[in-house]
Amino acid sequence: MPAIDLIYESAMTIALLRAFHLVAQAQSFTKAARDAGLSQPTLSAQVRKLEAQHGVSLFNRRGRRVQLTPLGQSLAQVTTRLFAAADEATALLAGAEVVRRG
């Protein structure tokens, strides 16, 4: 697989994990979409794609309510750490830029 394909695949996986994470945190596709400034169908499609790619179910869906499956609960713990680390990295880089300017 060419390197550019690996980069694209990794970026897509992160985007799908972000969609999952937003819904897991909000416990609602509608609220997560609203909070993220996305359409609810887009967010739902991203989560369904993640589930389909891996042949898993991450949420129990009951009307507008969603509940994490046991696998979804485990993945939510991982994505919480993942996106906290990404935020930390962004803050670190932003702080380095302030130091360079100062």
Please provide a written account of the structure:
The protein is mainly α and 102 residues long. Helix content is 77%, strand content 8%. The protein has helices at residues 3-26, 29-36, 40-54, 70-101; strands spanning 59-62, 65-68. It has a two-stranded antiparallel ribbon. The termini are far apart.
The proportion of strand residues reads 5-15%
H/E element sequence: HHHEEH
Strands of the biggest beta sheet: in what spatial order?
1-2
Secondary structure category: mainly alpha
Number of discrete helical segments: 4
Give the averaged pLDDT, no decimals. 91
Q: What's the total number of strands?
A: 2
Cα-to-Cα separation, first versus last residue: 44 Å
Low-confidence stretches: none
Helix content: over 70%
**Major sheet summary line:** 2 strands, antiparallel
Alpha carbon gyration radius: 16 Å
Gross geometry: globular
Topology:
Elements: H1 3-26, H2 29-36, H3 40-54, E1 59-62, E2 65-68, H4 70-101
Antiparallel strand pairs: 1-2
Helix pairs in contact: 1-2, 1-3, 1-4, 2-3
Please describe the structure with a list of short key phrases separated by commas or semicolons.
102 residues; mainly alpha; two-stranded antiparallel ribbon; globular
Provide a short characterization of the protein structure.
The protein has 102 residues and is mostly helical.
